[in-house]
Design brief:
Helix content: 25-40%
CATH superfamily: Metal-dependent hydrolases
Distance between the termini: 38 Å
Order of helices and strands: HEEEHEHEHEHHEHHEHHEHHEHH
CATH architecture: Alpha-Beta Barrel
Number of strands: 10
Largest sheet: 5 strands, parallel
Shape: globular
Strand order of the largest sheet: 6-7-8-9-10
Number of helices: 14
Length: 404
Amino acid sequence: MSDWNRRRWLQSLGLGALGVGSGGLLRADDAKPCPSGPGLQLQDFRPKSALHVKQTFVPKAKFPVIDVHTHLSWTAQNKGGVPVGEKVAAQITAKDALVVMDRKNVRAMVNLTGGTGKGLEENIAAFDKAAPGRFLTCTEPSYGDFLDPKYPQLQADAIEHAAKAGARGLKILKALGLVLRERISEGPLVKVDDKRFDPMWEACAAHKLPVMIHVADPEAFFTPIDCTNERWDELGHHPDWSFYGKDYPSFKEIMEARDRMFARHPKTSFVGLHVGHDAENLEFVGQSLDKFPNMTVEIGARIGELGRQPRTAGRFFDKYQDRILFGTDAVPPPDGENYPQQVFKDELYEIYYRFLETEDEAFDYAPAPVPPQGRWQIYGLGLSDAILKKVYNGNAMRVLGINA
């Protein structure tokens, strides 16, 4: 496994897997006989449903798909977990990615973590230029020069350079708001709506680069890891993924800062990744969409949340069908195998297609012995063809400026 793999990246970052964890990873003891008796521990409890309900296999999407949320490469981090410099490492080749894409009817994939400077140019050459029309690469901020008084303009200039190099958007990791500090790795946390980034947001508007933003994780990550936390076993395995206490802002404070920033830049297109960072509260996400016409959302790594509230989610998709993009948060193997709800392989897309296209009941949202994000199953939405076309590709084409 490469030194640049996702696990090392996340360990250095001190954060969760871009909003999800690995509590459901296949452990060595999963191959042992199933424990029983009164001493059974939660970590060994892997119930099999006794329901006899319809099971639909959806091997290929009904319409061509644009996956707007993938990670085909990673950018170098400093010891504090802050993205710095231009060094990137690809996790897969375009040739190998296309094999899965063609089987699953994925027309195009957006590599969000494409880097900056020379690293960005390398990624564009390796993917976008290697298979024109099949890959779109986004740039990222580099915080290495954050202490330079000229940083706001330097970062805005970097956006212009990225646009000229062929970048199709800007990716904001939750390093902004939860990791980046005033002295990069030390001092107070820098807030999401810090005005030093205003020139960067405006540069994105000027160059028509949508901002693919992720600044908050599930609400449970901001609450105590106690008996009431529905992600107890996930966070129990990885307590460093918790943002409760210390000097972390509350979930509410992060979202308020995000909204102030959205309001200050009405000409910039913002894609709220992971269902606007709050798939547990679709009423709030809807209010945000109503408030900010410059905002859309995507569904990557959140069908586990959407699928356990199928009637609410169905109404959400119906009302905001022009504002929802398809995404998976896919990470190529071997590293992606650590995150079964995100690993880039056939099964990932089959589950997403089943969720969106069928009305199947009580099925797993990830191919794992234990549900990795929460101990529940999901229910399909059975979206109409008209809505499916928009979610699968139409909305992404509009937001990303992709020609038919």
